[in-house]
Structure formats: C-alpha cells, structure tokens
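job 3f2a | input accepted
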Amino acid sequence: MNGRNQIVITRLQNKPVMLYMQGDSIFDVLVGDEKEEQALRVGDIYLGKVQNIVQNINAAFVEVKRDAICYLPLSELRDKKIKCGEEIVVQVKKAAVKSKQAVVTLFPEISGRYCVISTKDSVKSISRKIEEGEEKDRLRLLLKKWDGEEYGIVLRTNAAAAGEEEVEEECSRLLEELHRKMEYSRYKTCFSLLRKEDSFYLKYIQSCRPDEWERVITDEPEIYEQLQSYYGDKVVFYQDGSYPLDKLLGISGKLKKAFQKKAWLKSGGYLIIEPTEALTVIDVNTGKAIEGKRNKETTFYKINCEAALEAARQIRMRNISGIILIDFIDMKKRENRQDLMELLQRELEKDKTRTTLVDITKLGLVEITRMKKSRPLWEALRPDE
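job 3f2a | predicted structure (385 res):
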C-alpha cells in the first residue's frame, strides 16, 4: 500500500468522503452531504426569476427555486438590463454560508477532464500551467477548429497529456451540451434545474492529471459502477465486510490528527495551527529537533523546509481558506530564505484550489491566500461525531 498514489471514496459519519492519498499521507479531503442533495450546489444551472434589484448594494436577488433566493452582483450585467419578474438563466457560483445567500452568475460554464466551456465570452485559451512551448503550439492549433464559436474554451492542464482526438471529442460534446441547455431554457418553466453539477468526487478526478493517481478504490457499489464506466480497470471495488476500507487505510485515525492544533514533523519539530475568525496562523517550532545540533542555521533551514511541505499538506487536508500566516523559524542567510520560499511556492502550486503565496511581511510572516470553495474539514466532519 505504501508509495501508491490513490483516490479513496468511502463513507465516514454516514457521509460520502473522497480522499487523495500519497502513500500513507492524506492530502485532499472532500466531503459530500446527502442531506444537502436538495440544496443549491455550486455548478447547478437554473432558470430563475429576478425578485428584487437593490442599487445601493449593487445587487439583484434571484429566486432559483421556491424560497431559494440567490445574490447576483450587478457588475455581472455589463451592458445587459434586467427587471423584476424577468426570467434569467443563472449558475450557482458560491454556496450559501450561514446567513449569506448563495451567489449566482449570468454566465454558466461546464467543465470536463480536458476543457472548460464558458458562455462569458468567445476567448479560446490554454491553462497557464502548461508551459512547454511545443505543447502550447499544438493545443493552440487544435483550438483554431473553434475560431467562429461564440462560447469560450479553456484547455485544462490535463489536455497536455491527452491525444488530440480525446480533447476534440470532449470539447465538441460539452459545447453541444451547453448550447442545448441554453437553447432549451427558452421553453422551460421558471425554477427549472437545467443542469445538475457532477458529483464532487468525479469533478476532482477530472481535475487530476492521469499521472497523479494510480487507482480509485471504493467500497460503495453505485460509485464503483459509475466510475468504472469512465476509468475502467483503474477503479477497484473493495468488499471485505470483516475489515472495512477505513480501517485498512487508517483513515479515521489520520483525520483525527487533522482536528488537533499540533502537527508533528519527522525531525522532532512541530506546527501549531490556530484558526481564527479573520485568518489562520501556522507557527513553526523546533521542538526536540534542535537538541545536540551545533550548526543552528543549517538545522533551522532543514526544519523550515520540512515545515513548508507539511504546512502545504495541512492546508489542503484541513481545507483552510482565506488569509493564512506562517511564522517560520528565523534564518540569517538570505539564500536560505529564498530557497524556502521557492520550495513553498512549488508545493502550493500542487493545490487544486487557487492558492497564492503573497509576500513576507515586515515582521517576517509568510502571507498566503486560499480561495474558499467548501467548508473546512472540522465543519464538514465534526471531530466529536
């Protein structure tokens, strides 16, 4: 089991849970909630009705289904005019959070494994993560096929590792689907759900490069059948009632540590992770790692590098979002500080949620921002449940 990169889908606390694991380490955790299946899901496309327009907060309020009111920024309108009572096609962009309504956009998009199709504009582009010149030229040439297409196309990172026929087939299929949904909206009744977003685990798998995982393993029969139709033999069904998948991989035990403030490093150092209302602070401590060491600068550098890798993993696993400050151990050498920032940058770039290494403050704190897509782990899976 060690060394295998795999995606695990199982059930914890009676909720479907997907984990991305590298060897014994968990990096990403996504939690579904079957109680919320009837709630608004990010990515769902509706035919809604404008209920109110409030100019002083620059917003419109759109009802997408009975008693489900969403927030639409008026900046979305551009040159378009809307009025109360008008029926419009919208897509849920952000989920509702506590007292805040879900946010919708006037420009639906759908994504697949290789591309994103958008109604926002007709721009055809390639993911910025694809840096190789020859590969970019190949994909640009492929995009010319849709020069006259009114919808925009963004080729994702996965397109670089795929054959032209695969990419072309998906682009054509998703373009046709989105055109069909937008056309059918003219004949649908108000509050119709025009398109239901793919399951959270399927979207995650589609966002991965083929070389990022070796297999998907699940003990859920329906999920196994669904994924096998996409990925064939790379999907494994685990069925040992006497020894659950959770216990086999030690998932619950590993996640229990993700609810603790202290995260140990192999060197003997540790992180203290403190979430607050405004931001999350991660403090790097030497612990026992400094005992008996004479060259403190070298030791501090090694601990900081280990801490950078672990902090990036903890941010992903705990699904921490917003402003994050990391207080590394002070180092005197400029080249050591520079190497540390480059290492942290490379590790943060592996995160599938948009994460930005902003800067180092005057106090020496490393500032990071991470987009909020879903609830943090401690909310999604209660540690006391």
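job 3f2a | The radius of gyration is 23 Å.
job 3f2a | closed
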